[in-house]
Amino acid sequence: MARTTKRDVERTRAHLELAASKLRAGGDPQIADTLDQLLAPHGYRMLVVDRARSGDEQNLAISVAEPLRARIQSEAERTGSDLSEVLADGVRRVLDGKWNPPHIPKARRGSNIRKVNLNVPVDAGLLQELRDGLPGLVERLGYKVTAPSIALAWLVQEFGLEDELND
Question: On the CB side of 105, how many CA atoms lie within 13 Å of its CA?
C-alpha cells in the first residue's frame, strides 16, 4: 500500500466536505451529518471495529495533576473524542510497536501539586494484554512504564498537552 501524504489527506477531506455539502443541498442531511462526524477530530475511529474486544471494561485510574485532568477532559469534549476510544487506540499502537511512550518524570516529593485520578474505562482484554507485555516493553525502552503512565503519555500527546506535564 502506498504511503499516504498530507496532500492525499487534504484532498480526501475536501472531497468529503464537498460530498456532505451536496448531500445537504440535495435533501440528505442525515448522511451529510454522518460525513461531518467522520471529518471531526478522531471521527475516523467510528469506522474502526475492535474485533478483539472482550466486551468487559475495566477502569484505568491515571494519577494526574488536577489542572491537567481538567485540560484533558476539556480537549476531549472540545474535539468530540471519547477518552476510552482514544486510549484504546494508543494501547493498540503500543502493542503493535507503532508508538513508544516517552518517559514521564514523577513530580518531586513535597511539590504541592495536587494529584487526582482521571478514570477511563478500557476494554479489559486490551488492558490485560498491555499489562502482560509491560516487562518486555520496559526492557526495550530502558525505563519503567506502567499502564497509567502509558495512558497519560498518549492522552497528552493526542490532545497536544505535552508542555503541561512539566507545569
Answer: 7
Say whether both 27 and 77 belong to one domain.
no
Domain range holding 69? 50-166
Same structural domain, 83 and 135: yes
Residues 144 and 91 in one domain: yes
Q: Are 120 and 87 in contact (CB under 8 A)?
A: yes
pLDDT values of the chain reduced to their tens digit, one per residue, 167 residues: 456 677 877 888 899 999 999 999 998 889 988 888 888 876 766 666 554 455 688 999 999 999 999 999 999 998 888 999 999 999 999 999 999 999 887 766 667 778 899 999 999 889 999 999 999 999 999 999 999 999 999 999 999 998 887 65
Q: Which of 86, 91, 85, 83 is nearest to 133 (CA)?
A: 91
Q: Does one domain contain both 27 and 72?
A: no
- The SS3 assignment for 21 reads helix
